[in-house]
Automatic annotation (TrEMBL):
PROSITE patterns: HTH_TETR_2. Pfam families: TetR_C_43, TetR_N. Gene3D superfamilies: Tetracycline Repressor, domain 2. Residues 18-77 form the HTH tetR-type domain. Residues 40-59 bind DNA. Keywords: DNA-binding, Transcription, Transcription regulation. This is TetR/AcrR family transcriptional regulator.
């Protein structure tokens, strides 16, 4: 997996410089997943066990590092949308893609922030997003043409669905890692056309004790 170019001024990076670059990317990916993108390059340097000057030599700003780490994640979403278009059942293809994106964001706090954030300064991510959006439009149009999705649903509604599920996933993560799946199932039923079958809920709701614990974790 190559996040960013490994050449500087047309010359390959020295072996030690390349090792440091990979350590920095791995450290940043871990921090972004756990804490989101609101971290500093100093945090990344500490996690990677390199000097902060080494980080700045490889990445001039945090936006460049975010771009490098999450370009592949966005490319995975593009591949997921393309795979969903190959599913014979239009509803299943759309549902598979929505579930895939929600699962990726539930596992990676930073990915949700990037996905729903501004692309300014993140050229690589913006380029991938421009390729993903038409595929999502095709998934939705195909399901609507088949009569399995409400005709008044817009592609931007799918963005809202992802944001709602991502927000609940972050809230519930300290007490129930998979609780978001229940609410995805509920929301997907809301997208279905009149008269189509409902999906059985496969995940139990949070208990009162879990909700209280999640609130404490969120406050902390």
């Amino acid at each position: 997996m190559s996040f960013v170019s490994t050449v500087t001024g047309g010359r390959p990076l020295r072996a030690d410089a390349e090792r440091n670059r990979r350590k920095i990317l791995a450290a940043a990916a871990e921090l972004f997943a756990l804490r989101g993108i609101d971290i500093t390059l100093d945090d990344v340097a500490k996690q990677a066990k390199v000097g902060v000057g080494t980080v700045y030599r490889r990445f001039s700003c945090k936006q460049e590092l975010v771009d490098g780490v999450f370009e592949q994640h966005m490319a995975d979403m593009e591949a997921g949308a393309a795979d969903a278009l190959e599913v014979d059942d239009p509803w299943q293809g759309l549902a598979n893609f929505i579930a895939f994106t929600c699962e990726e964001m539930a596992k990676n706090r930073g990915l949700g922030e990037v996905f729903f954030g501004c692309d300014e300064g993140r050229e690589q991510i913006a380029c991938v997003r421009e390729r993903v959006e038409p595929l999502v439009g095709k998934l939705l149009a195909r399901a609507q043409d088949a009569g399995v999705v409400r005709p008044d649903v817009d592609a931007n509604d799918l963005l809202a669905v992802g944001k709602m599920v991502e927000a609940f996933a972050e809230f519930a993560a300290p007490v129930a890692q998979d609780a978001w799946r229940r609410y995805l199932e509920l929301v997907l039923d809301g997208l279905r056309a009149e008269g189509t079958a409902r999906t059985p809920l496969t995940v139990p709701p949070l208990t009162a004790e879990q909700i209280a614990a999640a609130k404490i974790a969120a406050r902390g």
